[in-house]
Amino acid sequence: MSSMTLFILFVNIIAVLFLVLNLLFAPHNPYAEKFSSFECGFHSFLGQNRSQFNVKFFIFGLCFLLFDLEITLVFPFAVSQSNNEIYGLIVVLIFLVLITLGFVYELGKGALKIESKQNTDFSSSTNSTINISFIEKNSTRI
């Protein structure tokens, strides 16, 4: 087999492996709002044409634009990989490391966090007291 065939096979195996790992280890917490329809993450109201956007959405847009430009800059290297030598590889790796460090810095600063209105406190004390009192009322003593 040629090296290109092995490369395509290896990429497909890695993709399937990541999908299986995601299915096995991803948290699964469905709630009603996940199944509702939405447009751009905002609830629509009748008669309201414009609403204020959170600045975080613009930050996500800028990150998308930066990573889109990254792909545009790395694509010529990938296409001409047979002509590139070690110097070209080093330049692209330095570029990718800088982009990755910038992304990690954004994650560390919390710039990509958007506050959710979802209730994530599943261990509510009111639910547990209601369940305990219900069990005590309906249990029979032997």
Characteristic key phrases:
single chain; 142 residues; mainly alpha; 0% strand
Describe it.
The chain is mainly α and 142 residues long. It has a domain at 70-113. 61% of the residues lie in helices and 0% in strands. The chain contains four helices and no strands. It is an enzyme of class 7 (translocase).
Shape: extended
DSSP helical segment count? 4
Using only CA atoms, what is the Rg?
Answer: 25 Å
Mean pLDDT: 76
Q: Biggest β-sheet: count, sense, barrel?
A: none
Strand content: under 5%
Summarize this structure briefly.
By secondary structure, the protein is mainly alpha-helical.
Present the secondary structure layout.
Elements: H1 3-25, H2 55-79, H3 86-109, H4 125-138
